[in-house]
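Data availability (excerpt). The following record was deposited with the supplementary files.
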Amino acid sequence: MTSSTAIFWPVLAQVLLTYGIYMVVSARRVGAVKAGTAKVADFRVPSIEPEPSATAARNLANQFELPVLFFAACLSLYVTGGAGTAAIVAAWAFVLARAAHAYVHVTSNRVSLRRRLFIASLGVNCVQWLLLAIHIA
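Predicted structure:
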């Protein structure tokens, strides 16, 4: 299996998703201040942040949890020469699951659906690490 730089397209997509969530958080916080439902000082203590911006902020924090393992897996697969077709498909599957998770989190916030999407992305990430283990074995 030869390593492919194509593994970096889903990495870039995940980074773009994170930047998109940053924009949602910012827009919701500015909107809350303009609507009078929050004061700028309210954002010093997350527990008093309005629900719409708090939900987006929590999703932003999520982008620095499981995706860290995704980034590590992608980079490890690339540097060991294991970023072949299966690894690239798994990487895209992870990003799609994370994008769906983020969408649900910042819109309907249906916890049962959000959980299923999280479990899907977790499972895909496990597959990435298994592919790495098989590759280096």
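Summary of structural features: The longest helix spans residues 8-35.
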